[in-house]
What we know:
This protein is α+β, with helices and mostly antiparallel strands and 258 residues long. The protein folds into two domains: 2-114 and 244-254, Diaminopimelate Epimerase, Chain A, domain 1; 119-238, Diaminopimelate Epimerase, Chain A, domain 1 (Roll), CATH 3.10.310. Helices cover 21% and strands 43% of the residues. The protein has an 18-stranded mixed beta sheet that branches. A hairpin with a 2-residue loop joins β4 and β5. 45% of the residues are buried.
Amino acid sequence: MKQYTVDAFTDKVFSGNPAAVCVMDSWLPDETMHRIAMENNLSETAFTVKTGDRYHLRWFTPGGEIDLCGHATLATAYTLFRFYETDKAQIVFDTMSGQLIVNKTDDLLEMDFPAYNLKPVAVTPLMTEVIGTEPIAAFMGRDLLCVVEDETVVRNMSPDMEKVLQLDGALLHVTAPGADYDCVSRSFAPKLKINEDPVCGSGHCHIVPYWAEKLNKTNIYAYQASARGGQLYCTMMADRVKLAGKAALYAESEIYID
């Protein structure tokens, strides 16, 4: 089975967020797809099957299947545009989170994702302990979003993953205003067996709605301040978030499974 490894939200390899992409003729058993994701040991492995003029897309972490993943969607679209749908400028995916559309515009791939509804929650001592400073605000969507005042806190934090596991939400996102960007953030996902997600697209479906309202801006230029780093060009559109970025092919390979 053909597999591609693509670095998403970057224009060069060894940065951004790597995802494996498996383009298949038909579905494998869920257990097999999960085992492939564990074997790859990347934050995401995407599996896609074409049905008619659309693609069905699923995402697996080493910890299991999830309902939405931005960087693996970008990586899948990049792979399909480059190798399978070279004459197309749009790909439509059917997913657990509904229909996702990816458009190719100039040198960017733009994804249209649902925004998470953010509910304010109380800041707790555990949040402060994990982050290293008291957040000025906290919100819950699918994930926990904590806001701090200074981007150096985001860039320098080294959270205890055992304590992150005790927080509510699937992932933890910590964000602050940026000097060179509208916002900077980092994303932690030990519940999915990923300590840090280098560039989290679905996380920005939490982060962008917050900053769009806070800054009274539609367009948000975001930076994920992980060791690999990644840039996202975001647009808030009612209850949707458009996430645009670049991608770079790292490897093509063949998987051999029984």
